[in-house]
Amino acid sequence: MTATGVLQIIIVLSAIILAAVPLSKYMAHIFNGETTFLDKIINPVENLTFKFLKVDEKEETGWINYLKAGLIINFFMLAIVFLALRFQNYLPFNQMHYKGISWPLDFNTAISFITNTNWQNYAGEEALSNFSQMSLVFLQFTSAATGLVFLIAFIRGLKRTQAKNVGNFYIDFTKTVYRIFIPLAVIFAIVMLFLGSPQTFTMQKGVVNMTGAKQYLSMGPVASMVSIENLGTNGGGFYNANAAQPYENPSPFTNALIIFMMSVIPVAIFFMYGIMIGNKKHALTLFFVALTLLTVCIFVVYHQEAAGNPFIAKLGADIKVSKYNPGGNMIGKEEHIGIAQSSLFASATTAFTTGNVDSAHDSYMPLSVMVLLGEMMLNLIFGGKGVGLLNMLTMVIIGVFIAGLMVGRTPEFLGKKIEAKEVKLATLAMFAHAFIIIVPFAVALSIPAGIAGAFNPGPHGFSEILYAFTSTVANNGSAMAGFSGNTLFYNIILGLTLFFGRYVPIICQVAIAGSLIKKKSVPESLGTFPAHGLLFYSVVMGTIILIGALTFFPALALGPIAEHFALMEGHLF
Amino acid sequence: MLNDFVRSIKLAVWLFILCSIIYTSFIWGIGKIFFPFQAGGSIIYKNSKPIGSLLIGEKFSSPYLFNSRPSSAGTGYQADASSASNYGPTNKGYIDVVKKRIKKFLTENKTVKKGEVPVDLVTGSGSGLDPFISVLGAFTQITRISELTGVNPDRLKELVESNISYRDFGLFGTPGVNTVKLNLKLAPILKSVNPKIYDKVFRGLVNTGNKN
Q1: Which member of A245, B48, B114, B190 has the lowest number of beta carbons within 10 Å of its beta carbon?
Q2: Are residues B31 and B70 in the same domain?
Q3: Could you count the other beta carbons within 10 Å of the beta carbon of residue A521?
Q4: Do B79 and B127 have their domain in common?
Q5: What is the pTM of this model?
Q6: φ/ψ (deg, to 5) at A88
Q7: B40 Cβ partners below 8 Å, 6+ apart?
Q8: Residue A174 pLDDT class (50, 70, 90 cuts)
Q9: Which domain holds residue B21?
């Protein structure tokens, strides 16, 4: 670790937090139905859309209809993209004459993008036409918006008392796309263009290098994809190597910018939550819980990667950092981006459930892999659009319940009594997340088609398969990319884990909102457990660590931890 | 319920048109007007022929040139097949590969001692298309290139130093040297000092030169 490395990390994190403050205010205005500075431009388009949909702006529905509307539109969007990919050979912008995507791969890919995951069992530049890439961009906008509006429903469930309606799905959804994602995506796409990302409808350009070798440069509408794939915490890149490919991430500065793009909205969501429920202290406490976890993860990964691989040093490579030598574990990392930026990127992409990668996670040191897995297993260190905070609040409900049991009082949370129904649903959401990772993983390990997915031998291969299930269920989408997932077995099983990993927790969480919204507010008394401050921080943190550790520790012990000790002992596989 | 179906289909189709087609085309238009160089892939031209991209690395494995990093993109720096090697740190196969690379590097660069081989030159990048090598990686190759070609080592050192890409804004990333730029600048020097070797290694430039 170097001082410049640490400074880079601190500066990027500070920039994210500073920018999240005004963004959170803007977002709170949108969902509270207040005026914003973009009204003049967006209102006419929005009103036209509502007229087209025949939606009355005052119309609101209960949680069941809100959820139903969301799931129905998700289904149609999934169908559109499934067809666009399946029949890409009949559609435009396919100069390379790529064939239609086979149905198992298409099943996996379409679900992967509608669930905001962007797990990729294909190599973008070798399989998809530019039109298919553009179709995926559509889901990168809408899947992010879907997650965010379900969170809004949840927040209204907390805030409103003795009410029934959580809002209007179509209005919240349209506003999210029009007022948050499109403006930001346009701005950042232009910035990325300026900094070097291509934007063309040509798929390949053949050149003859100075040495006489032929090279075919893969291109396409990259800049427009890079901005929304990160802003929407989608992460599905244009290229097989995602943000390691220089066209997607041309310089160390764009690397920092991509980290900024993927993080700023999830952080702003925490602040927005505080504004919307009128309890900033509470939201700030949750923010500090997430920030603590994130910081620890970043520095463990950075420390591991900067230290490098002792085997390589023994063979004669210079892995010590110096003025002109990046040193460390350079395999799978871009030289100019370097160790600090790559470590920050890897931790951020798993915390914010983006899944975009700027370096090969498969070549990370064992303990780094453990941290990256842990971030996805918890899935609440800021997390993706909306769902991160939803998972955090689910954990809070469980934490408050446990604290209530300890003091023998009916647990309360923000003035609402937490009763059996909410606790059951919260436990189910949390349990489903773990269950959908661990059980299919165990199935995969017990059959040859599952074992065949691993590329590296020994515990590292075990980690690869575990990573695949964790990443898909957490709707992250990054991979230890040696893993070969484009088989009938993995396309289907991962398609299913993607699907259930996304929708089961969301349905439980919106149901909690539906249950909370009916309750009346209990006035605060001396005995009320405060939802902010150090005690609350400790309860939430304790719950997260206890539950996370108990659930996933055995799997981590057999994979990355076993590999770490093998490495220490000088054992190769 | 029926109402939801109709609204969902309408909204889904409209957002598809807006987010896929209108949005992408709008950014394409901006690129076309304001940033044609970047939008087209930062292509470098020599004698009005495209010879590569500033951003995408090339396979420089000849001992007369500044070598780029090992690559797992297709057959090596195959720009339509980006990929990392994905080797794990305890994979014996990986350690054996690095062992061979280090041995090769030490035979080619006699002045470099074991333990001083720049790690980036014996490990592949995440994309397999990294144009950069570390500054140390460039410096350690000077003696070899100088001995083989007859170019004065001080001149090569100057060349490397003037081509260092420092941290962005003095902060982001790690200093490095873009091998595409560096070797392109090496070409005229080699042409004047040792035209025979120039013809041999810069075949792409020689051919385009003849045609024009």
Answers
A1: B48
A2: no
A3: 14
A4: yes
A5: 0.96
A6: -60, -25
A7: A198, A200, A205, A219
A8: very high
A9: 1-40
